[in-house]
Amino acid sequence: MTVAGSTPSAGGYAERPSRLPGAVVWTRRPAGPAGAPVLPDGCMDLLWSEGRLLVAGPDTRAHHPEGPAAEWAGVRFFPGTAPGFLGVPARELRDRRVELAELWPAPVVRRLCGRLAAASDPAGALEELALERAAAAGPPDPLLRPLVAALAAGRPVGATADELGVSPRQLHRRSLAAFGYGPKMLARVLRLRRALALARSGVSFAATAARAGFADQAHLARDVREFTGMPLGDLLSLG
């Protein structure tokens, strides 16, 4: 079974901004015998494929799709907002792909699957489902967006906690529920994303390391291997 997660980089992938704030609606069609690794990005996804609804939890390492190629549609939630949608703390889904029926009542999921199966645009129908659920769930933790923005910009975790007016312990607890791991891991994931964006734009590896906030190029190389299991050059060659 091929299970997507977030930000696939192989051909056959397309995305657009969602009407749900900060979210992305995406589709992926088979483009080869094997899927590209799905890299950690701080997000969680609601997934639809071949009559099944699944959830991709927050990753701390690359997820490598398995099984035959398949078509997928997904909604990728803004970091930290999916637990309110799902009613499940993110820490319970870390590094997991689970059937939605494990989290919600089976009759509800069967009804939703029937609705998506009948839709001419499954990705659009999945977005509608997310919008409806988000409206019923209420607003997310107001701490999340400024926290993500600060860490994505490279702000230190301690300084960010001070700026947000919370203790390190409070920040860690709220991060576990929202992101599936603590703020330091989130900062590392977001730093990796900054580095990959720079490297893919043609910036040299040494300059990428400096601009993304790594101590040096060796530090960047270690983090890339830890998160993805491959050297940076090999990762970039995948597209």
TrEMBL record:
Keywords: DNA-binding, Transcription, Transcription regulation. GO terms for molecular function: DNA-binding transcription factor activity; sequence-specific DNA binding. InterPro entries: AraC_XylS_family_regulators, DUF6597, HTH_AraC, HTH_AraC-typ_CS. Coiled coil: none annotated. Residues 141-238 form the HTH araC/xylS-type domain. Gene3D superfamilies: Homeodomain-like. It comes from the Bacteria. PROSITE patterns: HTH_ARAC_FAMILY_1, HTH_ARAC_FAMILY_2. It holds the Pfam family HTH_18. PANTHER family: BLL1074 PROTEIN, HTH-TYPE TRANSCRIPTIONAL ACTIVATOR RHAS-RELATED. This is Helix-turn-helix domain-containing protein.
